[in-house]
Amino acid sequence: MTTMDLRVGNKYRIGRKIGSGSFGDIYLGTNIISGEEIAIKLESVKAKHPQLEYEARVYKSLAGGVGIPFVRWFGTECDYNAMVLDLLGPSLEDLFNFCNRKFSLKTVLLLADQLISRIEYIHAKSFIHRDIKPDNFLMGIGKRGNQVNVIDFGLAKKYRDPKTHFHIPYRENKNLTGTARYASINTHLGVEQSRRDDMESLGYVMLYFCRGSLPWQGLKAATKKQKYDRIMEKKMTTPTEVLCRGFPNEFAIYLNYTRSLRFDDKPDYSYLRKIFRDLFVREGFQYDYVFDWTVYKYQKNAQQQQQIKPQDGDKTPAEGQASAQATAGNTAGRQRKTVTPIQQQGQAPEGTGHYY
Questions:
Q1: Which of 141, 202, 241, 292 makes a 20 to 30 Å CA pair with 265?
Q2: What pLDDT, on a 0 to 100 scale, did the predictor assign at position 349?
Q3: Where does the pLDDT of residue 306 fall: very low under 50, low under 70, confident under 90, or very high at 90 and above?
């Protein structure tokens, strides 16, 4: 299929490919009426495990929540299912790499506040995400550049009846669904996932950002199952105090709390936000939404300004600073269009997962 001249929903033109997953590709698209850029996710109608229609339904159920991308259109064009979404910025994994794979405590705490709230909202709508990882959180663009968004609901599942709130039953012998690196211990053990597992996974994501890596990364094994087993063993035998060593005690408190939850317990999201907010205040940080990548991007562009514009030496310090900030803003805009806006790391149907 040639996508450059293809339209979906009569008013969205498909442009260049900007990302891919196991079940489909993501393209930059344009609303031919307004000129607005959007993201278009395509999946072959012949896909072995079609999931795009289900994902679109989940997005519709979650519509209106802060940090939930809006689905503009879903349907079938030629041999493809297509979903048109808000265009978003880089993922937290992209930004982690941009910042040399280490985030400051301030950035982790700024993110933690939003991440807990996003998961709380998803749970309030009777869904669990089941694939909490840095790749599935994207920053916004433009006026919403400081807002964390959640994507990729192909593995999401209802954990309760939306009307009666009856919880799904406890089950065992389930295959791993999600990404092994961030999976909860109970998920490794084959227990049906519930709210507690999303929260425990978020704990591993935050420690990954603080530490730069997790102790169970890079383990070698002959088969996928053996690799999963090695990851599980390392996860279970690494004491919380060792995992959190060198970082504030709040991270250990968070992890111990989420691991202590029973299957159908509702996590105390407010308590978890509060321990991190109290730490934020105690550290003397400001809620200015200046993340590490904001500073790093500014510094990089300021250096480039000095290298490529010797005439800037004639400017006053204030003028030079304004010029660097303008360049940083322009570069950020260009980068947002080249970084995968809706990133899907090869999702798989229930019973399969990833270990990268």
A1: 241
A2: 35
A3: confident
